[in-house]
Amino acid sequence: MAATSAAVLNGLGSPFLNGGKRSQSLLSAGVAAKVGAAVPAPRRLIVAAAAANKKSWLPGVKAGGSLVDPEWLDGSLPGDYGFDPLGLGKDPAFLKWYREAELIHGRWAMTAVVGIFVGQAWSGIPWFEAGAAPGAVAPFSFGTLLGTQLLLMGWVESKRWVDFFNPESQSVEWATPWSRTAENFSNATGEQGYPGGKFFDPLGLGGTTKNGVYIPDQEKLERLKLAEIKHARIAMLAMLIFYFEAGQGKTPLGALGL
Q1: pTM (2 decimals)?
Q2: Phi and psi dihedrals of 208, rounded to 5?
Q3: Radius of gyration of the chain from Cα atoms?
Q4: What's the distance, CA 227 to chain centroid?
Q5: Which residues lie closer than 8 Å to 151 by C-beta, 6 or more apart?
Q6: Nearest to 72, CA basis, from 82, 63, 81
Q7: Measuring CA to CA, which residue among 189, 150, 147, 152 is closest to residue 167?
Q8: What is the per-residue pLDDT for 116?
Q9: What does residue 62 show for φ and ψ, rounded to 5 degrees?
């Protein structure tokens, strides 16, 4: 659209429509002589290209106000298509927290979906009955497993919570007793929720390691962030479907006839 507008405006100011340079000079001189004014200098037409439109979750709809194109979403977040019908992201602080929550829930959902398919394909036990199956939690009792998980998850989540409000506060040696190297757990990308580095990106998908220093690749990071949030949203929807199926005694593989 911006390119078309620029072409039209350039055409309106072209010698084809206004005459050649010599014709324009003669015309200007003739008009100026009649009114006794000085010959004006040729004017330049400057066209500024319009900024690219934000992506919309309803691209064919132009009306709708904040429902279709909320002003508090500017398209800067990965996967931002202007979908916020409840207005949860009007406050920038809440928007930042909701994106953090979306990332964490999405990552757990992706892990859970893979675990459900692989677990059932391997054992044949429905995922919602696996905990009650004999030997499923061996060699630990259910209470021991639950207590250990709550303790470890509580420790990790508390560190993430503190780091969200006070970035880089957890990359200290006392907070990583098994490593003694705080740099392994520092945020190598400088972006909340995407720590990168040798520990969180061991395969170097979003950067490279040179002389022991992790160097993020911004182009790769942007592409991976968009891919991750799309897969995370699909996985969360899949988990919601799995819950409804489990309520009917069905499994994902069973619903597919496998």
Answers
A1: 0.68
A2: -130, 155
A3: 30
A4: 8
A5: none
A6: 82
A7: 189
A8: 92
A9: -100, -20
